[in-house]
Amino acid sequence: MVNRLKKGALIFLVFGLILSLSAAILSASATTTWVAPTRPMAVDPNIITISVRGAAETLPLFLGANMVTARVDQNRFPTDGTAEEVYARAVQSTFLGIAGAGVNASPDPYLWNFFYNTYAKANDLPLTEDAIHPNQQGAPTMADTTILPEYGTAGSLVRRPDIILGISPAASGATYSDLIADLPENKDSNPNNNYNPTLIAYVPDNIGTMIQTMHTVAAEMNKISSATGKTGRYGDPAQIAIDYENFVRGVQYYVLSEIEKNNIPKKTIALIDPADLGDGTFNAYTSQLSSGSAAFTRGGEYSELTTVNIVDQLGLVEENGTYKITAQQLLDADVIFIAGAQGASMTKDEFITILVDKYNIDAQGIRGIPIFDAFPATVFGVVMNSVENAIGFPLFQGFIYAEEISINPVYAVAYYYEKFYHLTNAEAITNVIAANFQNASLPWGITTSLSQYRAADFEAKLLQGKNFYEANEARFRNTLAAWNIGRTADAGRTGGDTAITVLLDGRSLAFDVPPQIVNGRTMVPLRVIFEALGASVEWEPATSTVTAKKDDTEVVLVIGDDKPTVNGQTVTIDQPGLIADGRSLVPLRFVGEVFGADVNWDPAARTVTITN
Q: What's residue 1's pLDDT?
């Protein structure tokens, strides 16, 4: 264990790490109001449009696609109450803080006009119809299939977006394929007016899959741009996706390079749920649990490259998706994160009281260590299955190594808002930082002041990390942090000569890992194809088993096994599922036909056509 110096070694008791969206916004903006637009913004039809929900809503803000839908939320996108009440909540929305009047390099007009309409209603002014459609389906991965009677279809389809992100079947089993096929233009006799959007699965399993999703959406935007001339609002989205990946990798490898260069011992961290189990133990977590949500695993992702997890140090054994650690063992950690989404929300003093009074932990020892009990709020929080989660890397690293390494978490977040939310107004960045950090504990010597902040200084750290990674790539290959830095989209993503196109009922499917030909069979990422066909999917990582169900058909397929079962009956396939680029791929023809679809392959066009 690292020696505990007065300001060097830290214990962080972070009860506010896992924030619900509403809690994040309320804590970020309880005393902060933003400037609402006082006039509507015209919509440029030459900008690519996208339908998203919930935590996926930050992705189009990064890449510059116009967001035509958003999840109903009375703190973020308020709709209920009097006009005055709605407007009062609207001007406290963090979304307005990053996209409102005069702060964004190129605001999303649909988002802008939503907030304009709240102002217009409160002031008896005409409304604009060019505003986002709030929808009821909240899960970012799932289809929004709630029919709006006035439009005859779901809110996600009203404006016929170019891209639909998040295509898993709804709880009812309905899919976008069903709704799209039922649109008037797709039922008439004119084939030239058919609506065929690009369907993309939103895969927030971990930061790596969210990086892949960023690349996938960016590549599909560029395909649409090549075909139609439409663009994003901020230039090449593929470059933005690369910059995003560079941010994630650069932060981690900058810290690791400083650790190695200066012989800094890696600190030991404990990621725990603060809920008292009553027997002197707490639940502890890593990023590699066999099950569990981002609420329990993100902290491991943010820190595992540069620290030692106490679970590994003590050799703890997983029990039902968690590890049990004693109160006494916690004293062997240099950093403790209270990170249980379902755990008790408590102050640092309350947690210390449990340790001292109930479990006889040395009071002087634990009280003599600096304690930080709240992370800053963000639009979606640190672990809300959003691409915004990347903020967690500098927050964790900056807090853990505040004394040893120069990485200011406040500056890192300022850079993030400037780079990926495209805030060009210095005052706006200052205001967002002040709002988000107003209830947060900061490392010793760090304030929310941006007087010394320079984007170029932070970029130099990212470049140092990138260069360190590239110089030592062989060391990191096949490790948890082996994702490439600054990769370019491959042929499968860019639609080059070797790309394979998959059309489902005339609509192009997008994959985070491109389809491959293996032993004469087309292999595709399993979740995308199963969900696009309307099947529910369950994945068991411990046994590499996928179970997919649709109507009366259940398929159980084990990666690497050529004998899946269909409704309990064993069948033989000539090419078993496999792992490629960290994703599980399955034979497309088998999957399609087992659920009753017709599958055809055009070798000249390298196109698979599925009729569902």
A: 52
Report how far residue 297's alpha carbon sits from residue 339's, in angstroms, rounded to the nearest whole number: 9
Q: What is the mean pLDDT of the chain?
A: 82
Q: Which domains does the chain have, with CATH numbers?
A: 11-22+241-476 (no CATH), 25-233 (no CATH), 491-611 (3.30.457.10)
Structure tokens at 86: 């709605």
Res 463: pLDDT: 94
Between residues 227 and 578, the one the model is more confident about: 227
For the sheet with 521-525, list strands across it: 516-518, 521-525, 583-587, 578-580
Q: How far apart are CA 553 and CA 557, in angstroms?
A: 13
- pTM (two decimals): 0.80
Average pLDDT, integer, range 532-541: 84
CA 287 to chain centre: 15
Torsion of CA 20, 23, 24, 29, to 10 degrees: 160
pLDDT over threshold 70, residue 14:
no
Task: Give the amino acid at 51.
Answer: S
CA–CA distance, 100 with 90 (Å, rounded to integer): 11
Residue 93 CB burial class (10 angstroms; 0-12, 13-18, ≥19): buried
Q: What percent of the chain has pLDDT over 90?
A: 34
What span, in angstroms and rounded, lies between the C-alpha atoms of 399 and 13?
11
Cross-strand partners of 69: 133
Q: Is 479 helix (H, G, I), strand (E, B) or coil?
A: coil
Q: What single DSSP character describes residue 214?
A: H
Confidence of residue 101 (pLDDT cuts 50, 70, 90): low
Residue 484 has pLDDT above 70, yes or no: no
Q: What is the pLDDT of residue 357?
A: 93
Q: Are 530 and 537 in contact (CB under 8 A)?
A: yes
Q: Cα(148)–Cα(488) distance, rounded to whole angstroms?
A: 40
Residue located via tokens 């006799």: 189
Q: Nearest 5°: phi and psi at 464? A: -60, -45
Q: Any idea of the CA torsion for 340, 409, 217, 509, to the nearest 10 degrees? A: -20
CB-CB neighbours of 26 under 10 Å: 16
Q: How far apart are CA 475 and CA 469, in angstroms?
A: 9
Look at residue 413 and give its three-state secondary structure: helix
Is residue 258 within a helix (H) or strand (E), and if so which, with residue range?
helix 237-261
Closest CA to 217 of 61, 340, 364: 61
What is the Cα gyration radius of the chain? 25
Q: Which of 593, 598, 609, 590 is nearest to 519 (CA)?
A: 590
Beta bridge partners, 556, equal 547, 565
Burial (CB < 10 A; 0-12, 13-18, 19+), residue 342, is: exposed
Concatenated DSSP letters of 325-378:
EETTGGGG-SEEEE--TTS----HHHHHHIIIIIT---HHHHHTS-EE--PPP-
pLDDT for 230? 97
